[in-house]
Every structure is written in C-alpha cells, then in structure tokens.
Design a protein that fits this description.
Strand order of the largest sheet: 2-1-3-4-5
Oligomer: single chain
Order of helices and strands: EEHEEEEE
Number of helices: 1
Number of strands: 7
Distance between the termini: 29 Å
Helix content: 10-25%
Length: 78
Amino acid sequence: MEILSIYRHEPDGSLSWVTSANSVGMARAIIHSADNPAEEFLIYDERTKEGITLRADGYWLPSKGRINSDSRETPHAE
C-alpha cells in the first residue's frame, strides 16, 4: 500500500499538510476538489521519498517541495 502525503503550497512559500491518500488516483481526486483550480499541491511518497507537484486543475508542475529524509519534517518550498 502506498502512503502518499498531500501538502498545499501556501502563498508565503510554505507547505501545509492536508491529508494522506493510499493511491495517486485518490490523491488526485482530493486535490481536484480544491476550491481554486490554480492551487498547487505536493504529493509526497513516504516510501520512495519522492514528490510531485500538481495543480487542482490537473496540471503537473516541476516539483517545488523538498523533503528532509533524515526526519519527518514538513517539506519546505524551494
């Protein structure tokens, strides 16, 4: 089972945790339900330590998030 954490990119450049999902499809559905279609989210795979950035309107973007693999800290925007 995948464990994907979903973070919202905040206007100040920080990320805030939204929820977790057990598949990319579920993560996309959660993100797609956002009020603002231009809102950006980081989907982070806890197992592989990799993340992707997706807008609520479905566009994939170059990842803005970076995860500290030495701890369980919230990702930081670059």
